[in-house]
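As the work plan foresaw, the team has encoded backbone shapes as discrete tokens. One protein thus recorded appears below exactly as we store it.

:::
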Amino acid sequence: MCGIVGALVYTTNTQNSVEIGQTGQVKETTMQGKSENKARNEQDSLEYFDIQAAVGTTKHMGGLVTTRELIRMCKVKPSFRVLDVGSGSGATACYLAENVGCEVVGLDLHPEMVALGRARAKRKGLEEKTSFHQGDIQAPGFGAETFDVVFCESVLSFVENKQAALNACWSMLKPGGVIGLNEEVWLQKPSEEKLKGAVKLWGLPEESLQFEDWKHMLQEAGFSDVHAEPKRMKVLREASQVLRYSPGDMFGMFGTALCKYVRDPAFREYMRERKKLPRGIFKMLAYGLYCGKKPDSASG
């Protein structure tokens, strides 16, 4: 049964988080909001994100090792105010608040993820340094020039209008502010079989963005000094996912996953359908780290 939690931590891409959908304003967590969110998304994506929320997993490409790299690239300081887009269960937001000392605002479309983020911050005594809101990155409800850093880990890959999302990030950053991305990329154009496999496994949109595409979109949004690094999947780096969790977190996820596997036929079917990766997919699918700066003279 340990494999159930392992599979969830490995195959679920944060939190997430990443349900940064298409048209919502920041609002309080309600079941009605969840229903509206479900109506906007395809069934596969709903299953993907609902299961993450139910189990409480957070997964970003490259694990905690890559999160630390992105923090260094963005040169995050204790005095900064950071927006964590697709904050999911709050792992990165709490890591930033606890280890860097900055103020972090988490934004996620999924109401259960927002609740998980708040609960994590409370357990860690980080409520004064963090806050979590339900909302859409394309209509986030925050003012212009509000943040020093916008952090997006395995999030914007799931957004339909990526350019609009990046434009919104640019607007929310203060002049001189920085955006940091960790997003999936194809190293080469995938076959239809590989693309469909990725869509089914991770809920990715049916498109094949390559490494340079994200860089071009950042520049189109107005970011300068764009630095980009391609990263291939590596077992040890991916295994650092578990470093995000305390033993208590792992025990809780294991118990939840076990109960769902035993009691919920839909959960068992979901796991069975996704236990096999498309052959050779990680020779083609990787991720990129990107960092761009909003010019000092820019206006939001």
Q: What stands out?
A: The longest helix spans residues 247-263.
